[in-house]
């Protein structure tokens, strides 16, 4: 019964976020970078390449890479990008300051993404999600890019549907992106074991809301980022605190119970 109630609240919050009007999506702390990433009419490839770059560094820094390259290159058209060699991309990502923690690897993935967009989609990355496609097809197309795994592929499809209002014929294959925040929230809510694998968390979300598992992704991330912190969770501020086994102390250890009570005032 508690699990069903948790599911209902997460889905309700997810639906509220999904129904929000379309606006400028803020991926970074640089307005000019966000404008580039939001310009699907001229630069849909900027969004795709940013997804490729989103590995092993803070997301805000990863999503800055397309804009930083555009500054160094003097533009970000597919025509200009397609003329770059792998060595050119590495140079642009390296100097005057490295744009990523792993320049060698990520410059290769950047170059590979440009080649795929050019050869497979005729230089128009928006064809990846055009035509009201099934969610599985969009996730699959992102998975075809070197360096993109299931987590980023689902995240990309989820952002397209939720924030950019791209129409899909269904949402069945848009999973939660089980990062550290989502996994912690699922564990503390008692939905999964504390040592659950990413795959277990993903499949738990599928079992809870099979028609659109990813609708619970942002609500779970939001809770983990804002209140259900790794240290010092602010349980009193969370809208699930009355249903959370950790907050109520039903299944938590004494140290965790004490910490939640202190943060709750």
Topology:
Elements: H1 2-19, H2 31-38, H3 44-53, H4 59-62, H5 65-73, H6 78-82, H7 86-94, H8 103-121, H9 135-143, H10 150-162, H11 180-188, H12 198-208, H13 217-226, H14 245-248, H15 254-263
Helix pairs in contact: 1-13, 3-8, 7-8, 9-10, 11-13
Number of domains: 2
**CATH homologous superfamily placement of the largest domain:** Helix-hairpin-Helix base-excision DNA repair enzymes (C-terminal)
Taken from the alpha-carbon principal axes, the silhouette is: globular
Number of helices: 15
Could you please say which CATH topology of the largest domain applies here? Endonuclease Iii, domain 2
Mean pLDDT: 92
Which residues form runs of ≥5 with pLDDT under 50? 250-265
Total strands = 0
Please report the first level of CATH classification, the CATH class of the largest domain.
Mainly Alpha
How would you characterize the largest beta sheet?
A: none
Strand content: under 5%
SS class: mainly alpha
Based on CA atoms alone, the radius of gyration comes out at: 20 Å
Instruction: Give the H and E element order.
Output: HHHHHHHHHHHHHHH
Reported CATH architecture of the largest domain? Orthogonal Bundle
Question: Percent range for helical residues?
Answer: 55-70%
C-alpha termini separation: 28 Å
């Amino acid at each position: 019964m508690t699990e069903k109630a948790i599911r209902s609240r997460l889905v309700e919050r997810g639906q509220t976020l999904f129904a929000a009007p379309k606006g400028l999506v803020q991926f970074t702390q640089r307005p000019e970078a966000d404008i580039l990433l939001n310009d699907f009419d001229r630069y849909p490839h900027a969004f795709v390449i940013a997804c490729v770059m989103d590995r092993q560094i803070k997301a805000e820094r990863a999503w800055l890479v397309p804009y930083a390259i555009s500054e160094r290159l003097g533009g970000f058209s597919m025509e200009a990008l397609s003329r770059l060699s792998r060595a050119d991309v590495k140079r642009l990502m390296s100097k005057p300051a490295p744009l990523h923690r792993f320049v060698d690897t990520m410059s290769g993935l950047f170059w590979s993404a440009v080649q795929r967009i050019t050869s497979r989609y005729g230089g128009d990355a928006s064809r990846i999600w055009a035509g009201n496609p099934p969610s599985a097809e969009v996730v699959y197309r992102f998975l075809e890019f070197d360096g993109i795994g299931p987590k980023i592929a689902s995240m990309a499809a989820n952002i397209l549907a939720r924030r950019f209002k791209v129409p899909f014929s269904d949402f069945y294959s848009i999973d939660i992106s089980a990062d550290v925040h989502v996994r912690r929230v699922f564990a503390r809510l008692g939905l999964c074991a504390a040592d659950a694998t990413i795959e277990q968390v993903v499949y738990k979300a599928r079992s809870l809301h099979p028609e659109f598992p990813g609708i619970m992704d942002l609500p779970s991330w939001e809770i983990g980022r804002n209140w259900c912190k790794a240290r010092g969770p602010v349980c009193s501020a969370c809208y699930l605190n009355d249903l959370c086994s950790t907050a109520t102390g039903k299944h938590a250890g004494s140290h965790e119970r004490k910490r939640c009570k202190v943060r709750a005032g």
